[in-house]
Amino acid sequence: MRRSLAIIGSGILLSSIAWASAPGSADKQPTPALEAKHRMFRAEQGRWMPLPDLVPAGGAMMVMDGDPSQGAADFYVRFPAGYGVPMHMHTPSERLYMSSGTLQVRMFDGETTALAKGSFVYVPSRKPHQMTCTGEQECLFYLHVAGVFDLHLVDDRGEVTRSWSAADATAPRQQAARAPRRR
After folding, report:
1. In the CATH hierarchy, which fold is given to the domain comprising 43-165?
2. Global pTM?
């Protein structure tokens, strides 16, 4: 009896293996990673545009992927040497990867670091920070925002003074009542 059960069990196991390895059986199960459409971007495909007029003139950005007025997006950002963006925050978190130049990032709590080529910084949602391109060379960096791109200038108390959002695509205006509070 035991021998019969072992033979039947072995037969079921071998049948299962044969079915799973049969040509075409694996093809029937979709693999999302393989079906996803890839996207490639070459800088010559993009267009440099000025940063929102809420910040000083001189900086520029190029959208590489996504729609910053709808959700997550990737940008190249260029600051000329000496250019800086005052203390500000964004509703989405952001990830910044340095390509060239040296960018000084100062957090609202005073922590400051200089980012050079190959450096990375993650800034959580609604965390005020300031950025200045130091040195003689322009700063070029890749920026990923995890949601609709916006910019909120903050004062020395961390309170929002002016706001801009790609979703509105309007000129900056006083929006303290609508703007997110710093956490």
Report:
1. Jelly Rolls (2.60.120)
2. 0.72
